[in-house]
Structures are given as C-alpha cells and as structure tokens.
Amino acid sequence: MDSKRILIVFSAVAVLIGSSCKKDSVSSATGTTTTADETTTVAATISNTGTYTYTLPSGNYSVTTPAAHAIASDLAVSNTGTAAFTYIPVADFTGTDTVIVSPADTMGMPGGCRHHDSTASRKIAFHITVTASK
User: Fold this and answer.
1) CA angle 86, 97, 54 (to 5 degrees)
2) How far apart are CA 88 and CA 94, in angstroms?
3) DSSP-derived secondary structure for 95-115
4) Residue 77, pLDDT score
5) I need a labelling partner for 32 at 20 to 30 A (CA). Which of 11, 69, 100, 117 fits?
6) pLDDT tens across 40-95, in order?
7) Residue ranges of the domains in the chain?
8) 44 in helix, strand or coil?
9) Residue 38: which region, alpha, beta or left (left: phi > 0; alpha: psi -120 to 50)?
C-alpha cells in the first residue's frame, strides 16, 4: 500500500517538473529577437575604438561563448545588483564578433530548466559588428 502512494507522488512530481520546463517563442518589443530555445539575439554596431555596454535582466550570468576579437568581454555586477555586459574590440579589428551570455543554472538541473516566462532564463547572443573608426 505504501509503495503505491510513493509511486503516485513520484509520478505527480515528474509531471509537474516536465510541464514547468516548456519553452515558448517570445516576442520582444525592444528590437531583439527570441527563439523557442530561449535565446535572445542582440545586434549592435560600434567603431573599433568604441565600447559596447548592455544592461542584463536581473539574475546571475556567465559568458558561455567568449568573444574572439576583444580586449575586454566581461560581465560585471554593480553595488546595486545591476548586471552588465561590456565589450571592447581589439584596436584594428573590423567585422562581426559573437558572444553568448547564459544564465546560471538556478535549478541545478542539466539543460538549465528555468521558468519559461522569465527574461533572466534566456541566453543572450550578442552579434557585435565592429567598423573602422573615422
């Protein structure tokens, strides 16, 4: 009798976990795009003597795909808790560089199961076009 109760509870928990990890397409009013795999794409253009900074939604992040052509491509958290991504290209580089920033896996589960309505649960792919300074 007790093993049946345990099986029922285990089955209910498995259903709740599976249904809470669905991923949806999300439209963005900021001009960025978000795909069903929860990746938000941000396109930016700067000169090769410039600096690009992007304020991230609240949460913990890490760079999972580093820049190939940058002297700085960092995440920093201010003393107020605001997270920002900063990119500074190599001086003579022109072209496109890509950096992917991912949220910390707050659930401790492989695959990063996070609540699908939270912008902090999405990877952010920065496609930064660097032009020659004038």
Assistant:
1) 25
2) 12
3) EEEEEEEEE--TT--TT----
4) 87
5) 69
6) 999 999 999 999 999 998 888 999 999 999 999 999 988 888 889 999 999 899 99
7) 23-131
8) strand
9) left
Nearest to 101 by CA among 127, 129, 69: 127
Q: Which of 112, 116, 71 is nearest to 93 (CA)?
A: 71
* Contact yes or no for 96/127 (Cβ under 8 A): yes
Q: Distance (Å, rounded) from C-alpha 43 to C-alpha 48?
A: 16
CA 90 from centre of chain: 23
pLDDT of amino acid 16: 41
Contact 97, 70 (CB under 8 A): yes
Q: What is the pLDDT of residue 121?
A: 64
| CA 55 – CA 71 distance, rounded (Å) | 19
Q: Which of 85, 79, 81 is nearest to 127 (CA)?
A: 85
Statement: residue 29 has pLDDT above 80: no
Q: What is the pLDDT of residue 120?
A: 56
List all residues 6 or more positions away from 55 whose beta carbon is below 8 Å from its beta carbon.
82, 83, 84
CATH 2.60.40 fits domain 23-131: yes
Token duo for residue 1: 């009798």
